[in-house]
Every structure is written in structure tokens, then in C-alpha cells.
Amino acid sequence: MRKSYLSIVLIATLALTACGTNASNATNVTSISVEDMPLSAEPADDTTTQNNTIATNTFKFNENVFSKKAATIYGEKTKASFFNLCKALKAGEDTFECPDEATYIECIEGDLLSHFFPAAVSCISADQTTGFEDGVGKIKYNITKDEFHSREKAFEDKVIDTLNANVDPSYSEFEKALNLYVYISQNFVYDYEMYEDYLAGKGENVGAYRALMDNKGISQELSDLYSYLLLQCGVEADVISGYNINGDHQWSFVSIGGKDYHVDPTQGLSSPDLFDDNTPLDYFLMTDNTRAERDGFSDYYLCGSNSLNVQATDDKYSTLTGGYFLKLDCNRNILTYGGYDGGGVQEFRYDD
Fold first, then answer.
1. Residue 42 scores a pLDDT above 50
2. Torsion angle, CA of 116/120/121/127, rounded to 10 degrees?
3. Which long-range contacts (CB under 8 A, 24 or more apart) does 29-36 make?
4. How does residue 22 score in pLDDT terms, banded at 50, 70 and 90?
5. Average pLDDT of the chain?
6. What is the pTM of this model?
7. How many CB atoms lie within 10 A of CB 81?
8. Is the CB of residue 220 less than 8 Å from the CB of residue 206?
9. Would you say 333 and 349 are in contact if contact means Cβ atoms under 8 Å apart?
10. Which of helix, strand or coil describes residue 270?
11. Pairing between strand 216-217 and 136-138?
12. Are strands 136-138 and 132-133 parallel, antiparallel or unpaired?
């Protein structure tokens, strides 16, 4: 197996070029030689891109993120109540407005915090006896408010630092999705210890917050984090789960250009023993058929529900299967990737 086509210096460069005017809207693959590629010897940091262009725009934290598909599943009433809860938590309040007890329990005890306000996971709970009355729900803090605010602020700061270091508001949906996929691949590891704890029923702290702060996680955490970061930068994303002979697994369901795709950030984690530690692209923007054929998943639960019929049928990115990430040129809309088994260096041209 041929594992390296570029210098190790280029492989270590993880941040991506700043986006510019589209040079070509044709989506195709071109083989190129190594000599055709400009190599960079400058490592990326939190303020530069791969060609050392400093991003001119910055992101601001959005406390009210909620995917369109989740709104369809849970309803606008629950969405509005959840936003009331988020506002109350940010303000350090003890109550929030909600229309009924079922919505109150859903907002605090359901999966919504995991998906859309990760810093509050395990930090608050519902009062099952007197928690809801006359359109008002009580918030029970499991830690002090000062501890919660410090935790939430640290998470918020790291979310914004992560986005500003890896994507720009001007990036296309594809570019944001790929950049953040590479970010998780190159900066996170699978947490086998937490997986064992989770199987033993000790997973109360599982979530995107822990993953981001500790740079490790299991599939539930990594997919929640990936989808949450995408929502924070304006890309529609959810989490989706399924079962096969090995048990349950969770990954992300992402909308690019109005079409849906499966993205599995856990399977995309890089390994020093494979492809010079580059990010594999096999699990990036998959169709339903690819997802089912690869791991046997076919019956899906989006945000914990099977009430919404979702499909991923567009195969425009299927040519990336069998490749690993090398470089993204946003100015020319070209993704450069290497082939696993002697496939050489390829160029994939994408639309804005």
C-alpha cells in the first residue's frame, strides 16, 4: 500500500485556505502529479489558514440553535420553550416559560440539551413533583450557578475559538463541513474508557461539552459536537443513530446545498498508523446505500425519533471514497486528496 504522496510537512498542515471567488463549478476528479502541488512548510495555528491568510470575519456564539428537522419532530411549541430555557440559563434564572408539563420535561430531561445546549448536560434537572405550574417551569441546578456560568462561558469561548480557527463565515456549506470534519479527525481521539463506562450505565456526563473540552469522546459525543459546531456556523445538521450486529452507533446527518448526507466523525478519526495520519474521507457525505453497505445500518433514528422520513440519495461526493484529505483550495473550489492503494493524488472540483 502506498501511503504517502506529499511531504510530511504538508500532511501536518491542518488549517485550510481562505475562500474566494469560484474558479470552476464543474464537479469532477482530476489526477495530478506531486510536482503540480504547491507545498507549504508553515504549520497552522489558531489565527492562520494553510496559506497564512488571516481570516477577516469572526463568528459570534448563538445560544439559540435548533435544526429545522428537529423543529419538525418536536414542534415549534417545544422549540420556543427550549429557547426560553436557554435564555433563562444564560441569565442565571430559576424558571422559564413553557405551555405544559410534558414540554417542560422534554426541554430539561430529554435529548434537546445534548443536541442544542451541551454545556447544561447533567448540570440541571427537572422537579418531577412541583416543577411545573401555571405555564412556568422550575430549573433545578445540580451545581452552583457560578460553577455553571463558568462552565458555560468556557464552552462558549472554545466553540468560538474553534470556529474562528477552522472556518470563515464566507465559506460554503461544503467547506465548513469538510474543515470541521478534518478538525475533529486531527484533534480528537476515541475514548475507550468512557465507552466502557457508558456500557456499564455510567454515561451521565456523555456529551459534546466533554468532547470539546477534553478532545476525546465516543460516537454520541463526537457526532453531537460536529453537528453542533455546524449549526453554530449556519449549516443544517442533526444526529442520527442506528443499530447493527455490534450494537448502537450515532453519527451526523448534514444538509449541503439542500441535499442530505451521512457524516460519521467517529469513523473519520485519523490514525498515526494509516495514511500518514491524514483524515480518511470514506465516511464523509455518504448516501443511505453507502451507509448501509459499509456497516449494516439501515433503520435510522433522527434526533432519537423515527417519525421523520429522511433520505440521503445524492452521490456527487462518492468519488471521495477510498481517499484521504490533503488540501482544500477555497479560491479555486478544489479538494486535493490521496488514494489509498496507489491511487495517486486526485483533485475534486466542487460547487459553491
1. no
2. -110
3. 29/319, 29/346, 29/347, 29/348, 29/349, 30/346, 30/347, 30/349, 31/344, 31/345, 31/346, 31/347, 32/336, 32/344, 32/345, 32/346, 32/347, 33/344, 33/345, 34/5, 34/6, 34/345
4. very low
5. 85
6. 0.85
7. 25
8. yes
9. yes
10. coil
11. unpaired
12. antiparallel
Q: Is 272 helix (H, G, I), strand (E, B) or coil?
A: coil
Residue owning grid cell 474543515: 179
Higher per-residue confidence, 24 vs 236: 236
pLDDT at 56: 57
Query: Is residue 115 helix, strand or coil?
Result: helix
Pairwise CA distance, residues 269 & 179, whole Å? 13
Q: What is the mean pLDDT of residues 3-25?
A: 33
Residues 308-341 have pLDDT tens digits of 999 999 999 999 999 999 999 999 999 999 988 7
The H or E element containing residue 328 is strand 323-329
Lookup: cell for 59: 463568528
- The DSSP annotation for 44-112 comes to P-TT--TT-PPPS------S----HHHHHHH-HHHHHHHHHHHHHHHHT-SEEE-SSHHHHHHHHHSSH
Residue 58 backbone class (left: φ over 0; alpha: ψ -120 to 50; beta: rest): beta
Percent of the chain whose predicted confidence (pLDDT) is above 70: 84
Q: Distances from the Cα of 158 to the Cαs of 60, 91, 211, in angstroms? A: 11, 20, 11
